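User: Hey, quick favor. My workstation is busy. Could you predict this chain's structure for me?
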Amino acid sequence: MPLYYGFDMTYLVLVLPCLILSLWASSNVNRTFKKYASQQSVRRITGADAARRVLLANGITDVQIQRVSGNLTDHYDPKTNVIRLSDSVHDATSTAAIGVACHEAGHAVQYAQNYAPIKLRAAIVPITNIGSKLAMPLILLGLVLTFLESFSYTLVYVGIACFGLSVVFQLVTLPVEFNASRRAMAAIEDSNILTDEEQVGARKTLTAAALTYVAATAVAIAQLLRLLMLFGRRRSRD
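Assistant: No problem, here it is.
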């Protein structure tokens, strides 16, 4: 794809639509959570209690549940074996809070049951972190050292390969997140945490959250394709 008036059309066609999708997904998850945060559960079960029920239903008793500051900062930390729930989830009794809390408990269950994708994701995190830090410096260095020809291209493509590791991480993350949400909804239903009507709110909240991971994956793939097209075209011209 050529440049038009100095503007890279690969960015316009490949990356920009995915960035717009990502912005929409981020806005949507906040809007959806806010909507169902006002829908209180009939049984008045808090997010922390709901997460604890999911753990106990799966025979897990060694995972701690703690409060963490912030909004939608909920996560499971496998290193400390702790589920951290945000202020808007930990003591809240809304359908949104319960959905999020059960989702994080779902991650703890994944680790306890040796769910393969989450083990793979944990294994590649160190490599991915290194790759993401080296990617752009290597690409830029390759561009600076163009006079070295083949060595320059080697640096560029090693940098692109390092960036590709982040794409792999995003792809592995998708089944992990979708599976945690499925586990959460199954536990909510089986443990009778929410009524059938209330489950709609929890499900929509988790679906909105899942779309943010889909959007992030789309952005990463688009950026990788853009790099391959840009530098592939540059090499063909040389």
